[in-house]
Amino acid sequence: VGAEKINTEIITLSRFITEEQHKHPEATGDFTLLCQALQFSFKSIAYYIRRATLINLTGLAGSANTTGDDQKKLDVIGNDLFIAAMRGSGKCRALISEEEEEVIYFDEYPNAKYMVACDPIDGSSNLDAGVSVGTIFAISKLSDEVIANGRRPEVKDLLAAGTELVASGFTMYGASSQLVITMKGGSVNGFTLDSALGEFILTHPNMQMPKKRAIYSVNEGNSLYWEDKTVQYFNSLKFPPKTADGKDGKPYSSRYIGSMVADAYRTLLYGGIFAYPADKKSPKGKLRILYECAPMAMVMEQAGGQAVDSNMRRLLEVVPESIHDRSGIYMGSYEEMEKVIAAHK
Ligand code: AHM
Ligand code: MG
Question: Where is the Fructose-1-6-bisphosphatase class I N-terminal domain (predicted)?
Fold first, then answer.
């Protein structure tokens, strides 16, 4: 009596992944090792972000990445940490990173079976202001043919729809570091980094998104370039029709952080919709399919939501034409997404 109840049955990410592995007798343990390397990269990126202002890591690196964005010093460090972790795992054959123009091949591991796509630090325009950023990752298995021949996969072998992913997720380095991960056909689970223990602890098991919530998240500064249907849809949220008894309808709340990881994390917990539509200025949209749209779409769907592109096509079925290909995206609560789709018909 009086003593605080301490939870001694802590489920760490390592324990969680090991238990998942045991559910699949055919599993070789390769995925488990890949996840160990992944979680080390998340911890180290989180560590440098927290110390950035103290050790002179804010600001630009003086270079631009493949897609023309100015690289921040931390973009470069996050990318290097991620590549080193994937190489060190010995289980990753090819890596696609937002910060690298070409595919990175780990030829020293010709039998590695996995391919990873990542955005090492998503939302990096927010970095110097201390706003949440995060890492997005998507994991897929190379085809049996590529594995059997131990050959280097070609770019076309890597351009698959999101339905082929074996796992995906993202981290958010905010007030605390959060990790959200889902495996094919499974639930979505959320972990919080306990920095004293250096472990991600399962804090949000089996995440299910609310079916609806009156929150929208979009950069309205792009309205001028939107298609008419998109303008009308967002207007319908802001200017709802009067109720039957003549009272004002209740408009939606607007929340936009400008870091997809943070906007997506809020959407997972609270519900609502997040959008980055394709528009007249960017007909392919802004966000990248392989390491931004598809992994987020997988998380949203497996948490009970939906994700589509600007043509209202299921995002997980979109096949990119190149490794840095982009797409418009709408994702979020199931019922809110039904409204998005109806409004764009
Ligand atoms: P980044 O990968 O260069 O950080 O860009 C992706 C980010 C997303 O996190 C966010 O949703 C979007 O770009 C914000 O774009 P904008 O500033 O145009 O609203
Ligand atoms: Mg990004």
Answer: 11-205
Cβ pair 145, 157 in contact under 8 A: no
The environment of the single-atom ion ligand 2, i.e. residues with CB closer than 5 A, is: 119, 122
Instruction: Give, in degrees to the nearest 5, the angle at Cα 213 between 309 and 286.
Output: 25
Could you count the other beta carbons within 10 Å of the beta carbon of residue 212?
A: 17
CB 123 near ligand 1, within 6 Å: yes
Which ligand is closest in space to the CA of residue 221? 1
ipTM, 2 dp: 0.96
Q: How far is ligand 1, taken at its centre, from the CA of residue 156, in Å?
A: 26
Q: Are 167 and 183 in contact (CB under 8 A)?
A: yes
* Strand order across the beta sheet in which 134-141 lies: 104-105, 92-97, 114-122, 134-141, 165-173, 177-183, 188-194, 199-204
Using an 8 Å Cβ cutoff, are 62 and 72 in contact? no
Q: Is 119 near ligand 1, meaning CB less than 6 Å away?
A: yes
Q: What amino acid is encoded at 94 in this protein? A: A
Q: What is the DSSP letter of 289?
A: I
Which DSSP letter does residue 333 get?
-
* Tokens, residue 45: 């990126």
Scan for tokens 């804010």, then name that residue.
Answer: 58
Task: Give how far Cα 195 sits from Cα of 31, 34, 128, Å.
Answer: 24, 21, 22
As averages over each run of 10 residues, the pLDDT of the chain (345 residues) reads: 78 94 89 96 94 74 70 88 97 97 96 96 90 97 91 94 97 95 96 95 97 98 97 97 91 98 98 98 97 98 98 98 98 98 95
The whole model's pTM is what? Answer: 0.94
Tokens for 250, please give them: 């209740």
**Is the beta carbon of 279 within 6 A of some atom in ligand 1?**
no
